[in-house]
Specification:
The complex is a heterotrimer. Chain A is of the alpha+beta class. Chain A is 34% helix and 15% strand. In chain B, the strands form six sheets. A five-stranded parallel β-sheet of chain B has the order 6-2-1-10-18. A five-stranded antiparallel β-sheet of chain B has the order 12-16-15-13-14. Chain B has a four-stranded antiparallel β-sheet with strand order 17-11-21-22.
Amino acid sequence: MTKTINLTLKVWRQQGPKDKGRFETYHAKNISTDMSFLEMLDVVNDQLTIDDKEPIAFDHDCREGICGMCGCVVNGRAHGAEKGTTLCQLHMRHFDNGDTIAIEPFRAMAFKAIKDLAVDRSALDKIIQAGGYVSVNTGGAQDANAILVPQEVADLAMDAAQCIGCGACVAACPNASAMLFTSAKVSQLALLPQGMPEAAKRALNMVRTMDELGFGNCTNERECEAECPKEISITNIARLNREYLNAGFFSRSI
Amino acid sequence: MALDAKIPGGPISEKWDRHRFELKLVNPANKRKFDVIVVGTGLAGGSASASLAELGYNVKTFCIQDSPRRAHSISAQGGINAAKNYPNDGDSIWRLFYDTVKGGDFRAREANVYRLAQVSNDIIDQCVAQGIPFARDYGGLLDNRSFGGAQVSRTFYARGQTGQQLLLGAYSAMMRQVAAGKVQMFPRREMLDVVVVDGHAKGIVARNLISGEIERHAADAVVLCTGGYGNVFFLSTNAMASNVTAAYRAYKKGAFFANPCFTQIHPTCIPVHGTYQSKLTLMSESLRNDGRVWVPKNQGDNRKPDQIPESERDYFLERKYPSFGNLVPRDVASRNAKEQCDIGKGVGETGHAVYLDFADAINRDGRDVIEKKYGNLFQMYEKIMAENPYEAPMMIYPAIHYTMGGLWVDYNLMSNVPGLFVLGEANFSDHGANRLGASALMQGLADGYFVLPYTIGGYLTGTPKADVTTGHKAFDESEKQVTDGINRMLAIDGKRTVDDFHKTLGHIMWDYCGMARTNEGLAMAQTMIQELRAEFWENVRVPGNTADFNQSLERAGRVADFLEFGELMIIDALARQESCGGHFNEKFETEEHEALRDDDNFCHVAAWEHTGDGQEPEFHKEPLVFENVKLTQRSYK
Amino acid sequence: MNWITGTLGSSIGKKLLMAITGFSFCGFLAAHLAGNLTIYGGKDAFNGYAAHLHALGPLVTVAELGLLTFFLVHVIIGLILFLSNLKARPVRYAVNKSAGGRTLGSATMPYTGAILLAFIIFHLMNFHFVDKTDTTIFNIVSNAFSNTGYVAIYIVAMVAAAIHVSHGFWSAFQTIGANHPKYMPLIRTVSIAFAVVVGIGFGFLPIYIFLLA
């Protein structure tokens, strides 16, 4: 049966990138434990609106854990403490009556603040633009079954391809590194025969772009893997390292 | 106005080939002189942006999210159809065409559907070449599965995340063009108006959602790929930002809206469980391949499912439809679930749910096999419901999922406003009154990769080039209208929140224009919506101001449009005095409670023209001619 | 850009340099520890080992210069990485919790590294750059470790070394891309085992000598 809890929220409020930002305290009352975390914020925002205060800005869209739009740091954990879960799929049944919850945006130099809990993650798009694709124009592709791909390889590629680009890996990394994100795309395409022709160039360009965008360096802390809502493994980072070093030292690409 | 769908002549299997030949080409060197605006970056918008840019057009692409990778196509789970016939089970382009027309209850345009089936195979080839990790069998060949409404296995899939993978494929192709400088990306923009100059679409007015600035963008053609309007029901499986605004504003600028009452209810969603709920979660209907749908035989049986013996369970789909069983089309499965709940056999706390049981499949194939096929769906279910579906049967209930209606387009996917193209779910063209599973992805990509790149050339060469700039007075007027609308909403300062209005609207729509409709209910709902709309403009509370990241304001604009659009749906539903596919009017049903069509009077597309605020829209008819398919009463027995 | 600086100057390149130099230090530690174990054989054995080592002549100098180069690379790049990682998150989290990925070793790398840097300077000043004309290395060592302060410093440093190595060892494999589901568990176990050997192996020596004296 549905039960309700009362919570104290400490929410990061920041008017814009130039504002310094601060925590504000709100009381969320009679929160059903069947609610998702974002539905809880909806309830708080409704009350703020009625009370003539400005609602909390936060990004969200599909609310089923696949679009990658949502994400905050909840009590020090990106997307909250549940494993393999996005914030929209985090349910309030994982909190206790009387809990105090600190809610902060994803913080990284490469993720500029927009407002309150919303940040600009377009840096991740820029990494993909640097090579996260196979250069095939529409039309002219050969029959889909012309190249065999072992099931195991397709599965490994799919494990990596599941990345939803939410940026939790960056948020959770003590160094704000985007290695897990970058490695997921590099891995997916390096594993599949379709991606191999461009593998060297892709690894070099994507890593270079990642560095230029101001992300930190991977120090193998494994926080990204532990926090990733799609549970993408750091074996992908190892593969990226391999691909990158191979490309740097042994390919003709610069 | 006569609606000319511009369907090419000749036998159906040759129409597209012939048309492609007859379409004029744009000289490669001239393509770079044309600017095209694409609004939306789902499967249709992403694939169209990439393909047009590859051809050499200058593309400006807009999306509402922070990144084009987040469009709601990403949530499609089950798969994408193609007539590859890899499993050797009797599939063909003709069969896919036939299934789609029949599944759509004979309310789709034959020629469009045939073309869709034709290009379906190219889509799979293209997607594999992009590096999309489709499921494969042990030998390394692509795997297929069966899906609702079909008796062949023609669905390609990437675990339960096919939409995600296809979208990321289109997104990556588009990102490649962004890097090449051929696509200019405008994220966090909401299109608020189409600018029409001398009858041709020549640009858009959009709001920068971060700064609040109203921006003008001019182009030689505008392509809307803005998805469906399922969120008119408030609770749907659509993403929170999915809305009708772009399509509706185009409608207000003269584009016809076709068949708005054709909405699809998806049978396998997680049931509603509270008033605070913000959305419904769909689970792929591929679950029906292995799950068996049942309710207790006795009304009000409150026992736990494992305590209900086999003899006291009613596997109602298997009982009523022995040949298709649990795989009947979505509308049939949904209506039957509703019927069972309405007679008091529903399960769960609310009684608005039926069981979807995997016990037999797990016993037969083992838990590992089931986990491999549906692991992520089971996990999702467990997260939301806090119940382990490997042990207890899932509870499911239908929810609004897809909208077959949309802006009217001709065979070239161009609306009646020249230069305004509409792709994907935003148009009405291919699914008739009901869409088959795994066909939405197919249509979005077909439109973007393989149809628009040809047809847009035909329009651009056939139209004198008018270099309209953003300084044109049509832009001034558009911007003023948009700004006035925003200021008006902000000035109301009423008592009810935007979401509150949206929820009320949703209830009206679900109760009276949902899974089953009556003439009385629809008439009542129309009045209720008018009243609600009047109250909205007096009593809505939109905090903040326009020159800011203001999510309440964004929602307010969308709900304002839904409040008008909902009425249009009802008008359409009232006008269509028959039942077909997703439009089920209780007055028109067979003895077996199936939809009863009236082909003599309603075998047409209903296209509505905006005639002014508060005025009745004008009805236009595009008769549907079936030369290749015999109209029959759909039967899935 | 030159392809060498391009490759090595990137985040992964820098990590590669950290991995290679760090891994060679692991080799050095193993050799150093093996040599130090002669101390359990008594004064003569230990002095004999030292004499043997010095008899290698120029080879020792080459090795020392090599170590010094690696050392500088490791320290300088480590510092660069540390600073750029700080810069990558200008506003810190008010609440910060681990998701369970970090270990004591991984979370403290820069700090244990700094301790080791200070220690190595201290260690070299005491045992390497000292006048050894009228005495033996064994005497110097016994003298030093009769002082409890010295013993304490050494033990702290060796605990830091063990913690540093516990992450550094497996991390080097990950950095060069050697992460395989079949071998990674073994590498991680060896990593911990090696850290324990380094910690106890080096850490017990001062205690042993203190007790002996």
